[in-house]
Amino acid sequence: MKNKRIGQRTVKMQNKPTIISAASVVGPKEGEGPLKDYFDLVLTDDLYGEKSWELAESKMVETAMEKAVKKAGKKLTDVNYMFGGDLINQLLPASFAARELSIPFFGIYGACSTMAEGMCLSAMIVDGGFADLSLSGTSSHYCTAERQFRFPLELGNQKPMTSQWTVTGAGSVLIAPNGDGPKIKYVTVGKVIDKGIDDGNNMGAAMAPAAIDTIYSYFNDTNDDPNSFDIIATGDLGKLGKQITEDLLKDRGIDISKVYTDCGLEMFNLEEQDVHCGGSGCGCSATVFAGYIYDKLAKKEFNKVMLVSTGALLSPTSTLQKQTIPCVAHAVVIVNEE
Known about the structure:
7-stranded mixed beta sheet; 6-stranded mixed beta sheet; 22% strand; alpha/beta; single chain; Peroxisomal Thiolase, Chain A, domain 1
């Protein structure tokens, strides 16, 4: 069997699976941001007609998945596997969406790295010949995340300036062995990195070392040129985490400054929307990729992209037990090729 591994951590796709469609659903605040025209659906109510925020988030996942399949001219019954996860205990939003969609389901947890994690797994399962269509996506909701990880919204707690705003949104991609659309060429799977940060209101600084490790590993494995990319986008490091990542990669001999952005900075207008360091949550990189970045790839305005979704693997239990925050980042390289 031909070995598809490159270096220590990177897999090169033999047949370059195609992202044949993508879809995104966002909340009202996200719909007021600079990317508002790239989303398939902007909600006017963050309850989305449901009785709880958790059920609203699940409905967002279901909608994004259905839209991605429909945009590709496929039916739900055509899809072999669904990869999904989120931030909420026992993956409630993804699992309940999978119940309605009735697609064979892999529930995955990578915190805010889940979008790229699902894309890595989908690409490998399609490239390996185990599926003709794999649907991958994730979600987050400001109200569900705040309720689980921090405080009841009713308390109105003041946030420090290092904190970020959890994106209310769901994004999905449909991956096939071939077809029209950008191709997944490489995936680099992240390792769990923990530098001892225990402040849940400083997630960018906690996650930056994981992003640095994965990005450095990709370039070390492939000897690729950072400036050959149109954009390298981390998931949700925000203003502080982005600067840490850029500076420390430069110290290690890799300068990505000319092509580097963060989805948490792209989602909101930091000057006008009062989100402190920027956006966060599984839905951050999911909707920015499935909306803005995928649109640019489809129009050939971007021809080479690296998505590095970043995730903090803390939980209410680990926080109560005064543990530090382990983090992970997964990278997907997407290209347009003839």
